[in-house]
């Protein structure tokens, strides 16, 4: 199934609260710019086979970074990032 990885990369966006959530869940202290660069790097490096769509969300799992990113499939907003 083609999930449109280029479309996700082009339209990815964030809410004000998600930056705090990402820092807290990953136990980091990145700026907004650092978080956006970090997430974009992970998404670019993750194989399309590790992008799955369940319901209204995309789930991107990257074992190298030990991370799972949850993205709303309608708005392309980052919902959360979890360690795996």
Key phrases:
alpha+beta, 4-stranded antiparallel sheet, 84 residues, YaeB-like fold
SSE layout:
Elements: H1 5-11, H2 16-26, H3 32-45, E1 51-54, E2 57-62, E3 67-72, E4 78-83
How would you describe the overall organization of this protein?
The protein is built from three helices and four strands. It is α+β, with helices and mostly antiparallel strands. It has one domain (5-83): 2-Layer Sandwich (YaeB-like fold). It is globular, with a radius of gyration of 12 Å. It has a four-stranded antiparallel beta sheet. It has helices spanning 5-11, 16-26, 32-45, and strands at 51-54, 57-62, 67-72, 78-83.
In short:
This protein has 84 residues and is α+β, with helices and mostly antiparallel strands. The chain is 38% helix and 26% strand.
């Amino acid at each position: 199934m083609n999930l449109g990885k280029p479309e996700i990369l082009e339209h990815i966006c964030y809410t004000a609260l998600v930056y705090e959530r990402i820092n807290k869940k990953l136990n980091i202290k990145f700026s907004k710019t650092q978080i956006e660069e970090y997430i974009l790097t992970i998404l670019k490096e993750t194989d399309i086979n590790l992008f799955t769509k369940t319901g209204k969300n995309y789930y991107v799992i990257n074992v190298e970074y030990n991370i799972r990113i949850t993205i709303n499939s309608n708005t392309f907003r980052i919902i959360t990032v979890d360690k795996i």
